[in-house]
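Hey, I was hoping to borrow your eyes for a little while. I've dropped the whole record in just underneath, so have a look:

——
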Amino acid sequence: MPQWLCNQMMRAFHKKDRRQIKLLNECWYFYRSKQSTKETDNNNELTIRH
């Protein structure tokens, strides 16, 4: 998890800001899904080149 996201998540938990926690959680899952897709694409590209 990126440090900036971790810091914001900790701040939201300390403030008990449910709306912010939910938003940051959705951002994290969106980020992870994009990273996973990017890694899969890179792996496929390497496989195709060989």
The chain has a mean pLDDT of 85. The chain is about 90% helix and 0% strand. The two ends are 32 Å apart (CA to CA). Residues 18-49 form the longest helix (32 residues).
